Amino acid sequence: MIEIRGLSKQYGPLVAVDDLTLTIERGQLFGFIGRNGAGKTTTIRMMMGLLEPTEGTVCLGGFDIRREPERAKATTGYLPDHPFLYDKLTGLELLRFVGGLYGIERRECEARSQELLYDFALAERAHELVETYSHGMKQRLALAAALIHRPEILVLDEPMVGLDPQGALDFRRLLRRLGETGVTIFISTHSLAVAEEICDRFGILDRGRLMALGDLTELRARAARGPSNGNASDEGDGSSLESVFLRLVGAADGEW
Amino acid sequence: MVGGVAPLLLPRALAARHAFRRGPGRVVFLAVLTAVFWAGCFALFTHVLEYFHTLADFGPLLTQRFLVLLFVTFFGVLLISNTVSALTTFYLAGDVALLFAAPVGTRRLHHARFAETLVSSSWMVLLFGLPAFLAYGVVYGAGPGFYVGTVLTLVPFLVIPAALGVLLTTALVMVFPARRTRDGLLVLVGLLVATGFVLARTLRPERLADPSGLVGFAAFLVGFGGEPSPYVPTTWAAEVLIPLLGAREGEPLFHLALLASTAAMLFLVSAAVVERVFPTAWSRAQEGRVSFGSDRPLARWLRTLTAPLPRTTGLLVAKDLAVFFRDASQWSQLLLLLALIVIYVFNFSVLPVGDDTALGIVLRDVAAFCNLGLAAFVTTAVAVRFVYPMVSLEGRSWWILRSAPLALQRVWWSKFWLGFVPLVLLGEILVAATNHFLGVTHGLTLVFGLTLLPLLAAVVSLGLAFGAAYPRLDTQNAAQIATSFGAIVYMVTCLGLIALVSALEAWPVTRLFWASRAHAPLSRGEIGLVVLCLTSAGLCCALVFLASRRSGVEALRRLQA
Predict the structure, then answer these.
(1) Are A57 and A157 in the same domain?
(2) Residue B54 has what pLDDT?
């Protein structure tokens, strides 16, 4: 469903993403994790065609994002790390607008917008300008916009930021439900506990390189083989994703 | 708690220093422009004051009235400017939350923001007002006391509207949400400035260059508002300076003391009020608007308006129009634009081209031809303000369009039509109205009107290309985007294109005009040349349109939010 081959991005001498190759099957919930500046957002922006890669290809739903951008994007819903929205539109107008861009028929778009506004607890504020929404409300609205066309693939960059505990719980449930219906989900997050709870498979990115790939069991095995920084305490079979991650990326590089 | 106001002003000072270091060339350019403006103002004021000086009986009265008029005008501008500025510095600026959350007392916060408001609102009035005071000193041969007195007068004179502005803003924020207040104030300012422009132009200030016109102005001043009230700061300020000029006896120190004590009192009141109500007022400033509970009328109207368009194009156009009309800063700009158009057309209505002599007819034709270039120029200036920022105004929301299954050409075309249709309407109305005042024949007006179409298509296409090549996605202030480097390059490029098209059309238009005057048909060779010139002009526009469309779409593809 998502196929990334030899993807690289260079900014002058800085290699932000280095030869990334990755395949994510249909219905899989893939957690893309890494430290700040590891290259996660750059990867996602290249996946969505927002940034030109230096090298490599990305296929979404079988369509190359550079050769057939419209067909690739039509299958995908996207939530960026900072989802800036049109402040001067109302929540309902924004959903109608995005739905229209994805070619949803008017009546269906209206019904779907109302349904999503209700699901994301925004129905009461549907006719207010987005500029009056709180950060969490904007995040929920952006998520609703990403889902309006019932995408087969969902690419989410730090989706939990700004959500309150209830919102975060509802969101985790939603992702699991979408995964069960066959939606492929690519999620970049720093919330390792959340990733561990909902994702089937993980990719750990460090300094632009994919340093580990697999499910939690495979990652634990990899961590057990890899160099230890001495900080991780859980090294057994039950170690958390967080401790595995810390062992693999080497927290000895610094506290931050 | 760290004391003093200086640390709170440091970020602004550092930002100003960085801006200067980044673009010293721009500062020098602005300084030269200001110097030229200063020289012009100084010459005008000197001319008027010298005339007053020659009137033995009315001279002192006119001097006094003119000075009062100046202070009244400055006070009005300062009051509005300080109110708008205080709204931003006290209640809407992004860093207020940071300062409010820090262990910074409300009084210190008031003093720092008051200083910012005062400087940001007053510098321009001060800068453009100084030539007037200098002219007074020079014409009346005043001693150093006048200049010292001017400085001492201006300080409290600037503080008073600043304090009133802060108080007024605080009162407004306590009643209305801050965004609503700002929107209302922006529209009010636009309306006032637009009215001011139109009034200033219809008063025909060029008549001041003519002694008979000056007599009329003097008569207006003598009758201006009767005797100035002794209870207002504008009179006190004038009363400080008039005796220092030697125009008549007076009590400058008493009036200076009145000004200074009032300024000090208002400053303290402003500090006390802000200190008492700031937490409540700032909290209210964060509140949004009340829900409409249903579709907004504008949205319904736009859906109907765009219904005949293809679905995606209609959506893009409706979205851009909704964002445009809900931004109050755009309304104020529209009002200014309207005022400029009224002035432009008015200028043609008062041009002395009424006679039907051969010379009069030729002059009329030349004026009509220049009018084509001028109309294109005015329309281009409007394009710089409204078309050039179109791409940048997508701002950080650009990801929505970029991640949607949407061809960038479609985005380009929707923005093109959105810019082209209103500009064509504007340009054609300008040409038709002004040609009507000039008494130009319908045939020639039609030629000019047709010429404008490809020219404006090229101008809009260039605007989108330059706007996408020099994007300012970090700001939502269209006026700021329209004064950026890319906008200047765009304007210069458009002027070059207008000059080229005008040059290509000059000969055929003149030839056609004389042929119609002489009732003599053109020879075949001449017809060929006329067609060649007009086709070349059209081709130039078409080439520019196509090249800039291509580069615009390419720039959109590269654009990253």
Answers:
(1) yes
(2) 73
- Give contacts of A105 with chain B, Cβ < 8 Å: none
Record: contact B315-A51, CB cut-off 8 A: no
For residues A71 and A121, state if they share a domain: no
pLDDT of B261 reads 96
Going from the C-alpha of A176 to that of each of A47, A170, A182, A191, B355, the distances in angstroms are 22, 10, 10, 16, 84
Q: For chain B, how many residues are written? A: 561
At a CB cut-off of 8 Å and minimum separation 6, what does A95 contact?
A109, A112, A113, A116, A117, A141, A144, A145, A148
Question: Do residues A131 and A10 share a domain?
Answer: no
Check whether residue A223 and residue A203 sit in a common domain.
no
Kindly report the nearest CA distance between residue A118 and chain B, in angstroms. 15
Inter-chain CB proximity B403 and A73 less than 8 Å: yes
pLDDT at A128 over 60: yes
pLDDT tens-place string over residues B184-209? 777 777 777 767 666 666 655 555 55
A238 and A195 belong to one structural domain = no
Q: Are residues A227 and A207 in the same domain?
A: no
**pLDDT top residue among B182 and A231:** B182
Q: With an 8 Å Cβ cutoff, is B288 touching chain A?
A: yes
Would you tell me which residues 36-95 of chain A have a C-beta closer than 8 angstroms to some C-beta of chain B?
Answer: 45, 48-52, 69-74, 76, 78, 80, 82-90, 92-93
Same domain assignment for residues A107 and A6: no
Q: Give CA separation, A5 vs A13, A20, A62, A64, B192, in Å.
A: 22, 6, 13, 11, 61
pLDDT tens profile B397-407: 888 998 899 88
User: Does B179 reach chain A within 8 Å, measured CB to CB?
Assistant: yes
Domain residues for the domain of A230 are: 217-256
